[in-house]
Automatic annotation (TrEMBL):
Pfam families (alphabetical): Amidohydro_1
Signal peptide per UniProt: 1-26
CDD domains assigned to the protein according to its UniProt record, in alphabetical order: Met_dep_hydrolase_A (cd01299)
PANTHER family xref list: ALPHA-D-RIBOSE 1-METHYLPHOSPHONATE 5-TRIPHOSPHATE DIPHOSPHATASE
Gene3D superfamilies to which the protein is assigned, alphabetical: Metal-dependent hydrolases, Urease, subunit C, domain 1
Domain Amidohydrolase-related: 81-437
GO molecular function: hydrolase activity, acting on carbon-nitrogen (but not peptide) bonds
Organism for this UniProt entry: Bradyrhizobium cytisi
Lineage: superkingdom: Bacteria
The protein's name: Amidohydrolase family protein
Family annotation (InterPro entries): Amidohydro-rel (IPR006680), Metal-dep_hydrolase_composite (IPR011059), Metal_Hydrolase (IPR032466), Metallo-dep_Hydrolase (IPR051781), OTAase-like (IPR057744)
Keywords on record: Hydrolase, Signal
UniProt KW Glycosyltransferase keyword: no
């Protein structure tokens, strides 16, 4: 055998070994028929009559109370509840499992770690996430190409911050910064980028859009996790924020800002920002302004210190201020009927990520189960649609309707009566489907 043919034979053998060792892909049928289910459609506060739902080519083709004739896989729901897959509007796919220091380390390992977490996220019933900072473009591509099981990702790319702002994880030994000089490690891996003028902001925003960002994220004020960022500070100037808004608007999408305080919120709105992330320290005037301008609030039900368990004493002090503001931000959101999205903002804690469903259930402190589940499905999907032509998944998300993406959960129980069911997805989500593919089915065969 010639050297060339021997190498070709070896290549084939290796390919066969890799193929045989690879996990089987998620089940893909020409059609999947859910029979005998009651539907929470993502909008209505009551369940449908017992229905049948036909899924084909990744979308919901037909919903009917009458029998539907179809070939392919049949799933007998046994009267269980079929609902849309959950959406987390503030997630950090690349930053859930590593520690702050490890996130700056081995890129290859961190990507594999994020892939494992993406699969776990999907298995908790979250079929879509809006990634609000981190180098998630490659992970998104791997999920979209079926190399990794995970949720749909709406990526922001790198968080854009200022020197000393939230998202600046450099050490004091990295200072002074040389304008136009070497990038820091956090910037090189695409976690966050420092921009200290309108021109720098414009460049950094355009770089994220070039890579496929569906929205742009800036930090307009201080944050909990960053070591040199007091919670009360205001960071970007209005012209700097406006530079990002103009760049995003030119691409048909929007800017969201991390903002806790009234100054950060109101300055963001003046610059044209369309979504405020967090807002836990807002005042009544800020809430009223948001209502008048139709600005979205993407906030999180932080009720204890669990989210800061991996952080230092100064960061935990800042977290206490945020927790203290949680009841107020939801009270203002309800009083002024703000467009309110649900997210979790888990950072540096696999244990907290496992409580993703519990955080959704915690909304019952302020909302009915139907209101909370609507927020985590169709309302969050409405926020995602702000990406306009930059929407990586154009179509209907967050609803059980004909023509919508078949991102579906079959629940053993009625979450409209008992939202605590979402706290134990391993037990209670008996079928998980995304894009018409069954990723989990623990029903008796």
């Amino acid at each position: 055998m010639s050297g060339l043919s021997a190498r070709a034979g070896l290549a084939v053998l290796l390919a066969m070994i890799v193929w045989s060792a690879s996990p089987a892909p998620a089940q893909q049928d020409s059609a999947v028929l859910f029979r005998n289910v009651k539907i929470f459609d993502g909008n209505n506060a009551t369940l449908s009559a017992v229905s049948n739902v036909l899924v084909r080519d990744g979308k919901i083709e037909k919903i009917s109370t009458a029998d539907i004739a179809a070939t392919g896989q049949m799933i007998d729901g046994g009267g269980r509840v079929l609902m849309p897959g959950l959406i987390d509007a503030h997630w950090h796919a690349m930053l859930v499992r590593p520690t702050p220091m490890a996130a700056l380390g081995d890129v290859g390992y961190n990507n594999l770690l994020a892939a494992s977490e993406a699969t776990a996220t999907l298995m908790r019933g979250f079929t879509t996430i809006r990634d609000m900072g981190g180098p998630s473009f490659g992970l998104k591509r791997a999920i979209d190409e079926d190399l990794v099981a995970g949720p749909r990702i709406y990526p922001s790319g790198a968080i854009i911050t200022i020197t000393g702002g939230h998202g600046d994880f450099r050490q004091l030994t990295d200072l002074p910064r040389t304008i136009g000089g070497m990038l820091s490690r956090m910037e090189l891996i695409g976690g966050s980028l420092v921009a200290d003028s309108p021109d720098e902001v414009r460049v950094r925003a355009r770089e994220q859009l070039m890579q496929g960002a569906s929205q742009v994220k800036l930090t307009a004020g201080g944050g909990v996790a960053s070591p040199f960022s007091p919670l009360d500070v205001s960071t970007f100037t209005e012209p700097e924020l406006r530079a990002a808004v103009e760049a995003a608007d030119n691409w048909g999408t929007y800017v969201a800002t991390h903002a806790y305080t009234p100054v950060a919120i109101q300055r963001s709105i003046a610059a044209g920002v369309r979504c405020i992330e967090h807002g836990h320290l807002m005042d009544e005037a800020s809430a009223k302004l948001m209502a008048e301008k139709g600005i979205w609030l993407s906030t999180q039900p932080f009720l204890d210190m669990s989210a800061a368990a991996a952080l230092g004493p100064s960061e935990q002090d800042k977290m206490r201020q945020v927790v203290a503001g949680t009841d107020r931000v939801y009270a203002l959101a309800k009083k002024y009927h703000l467009k309110t999205a649900f997210g979790t903002d888990v950072l540096f804690s696999q244990a907290m990520a496992e409580r993703q469903g519990s955080m959704l259930a915690a909304l019952s402190r302020w909302y009915t189960p139907a209101e909370a589940l609507t927020m985590a499905t169709s309302t969050n999907a409405e926020l995602l649609s702000l990406s306009g032509p930059r929407n990586p998944y154009p179509g209907k998300l967050g609803v059980v309707e004909e023509g919508a993406f078949a991102d579906l959960l079959l629940v053993d129980g009625n979450p409209l009566d008992n939202i605590a069911l979402v706290e134990d997805p391993a037990k209670n989500f008996v079928v998980i489907m995304k894009g018409g593919k069954v990723y989990k089915n623990i029903l008796p065969r």
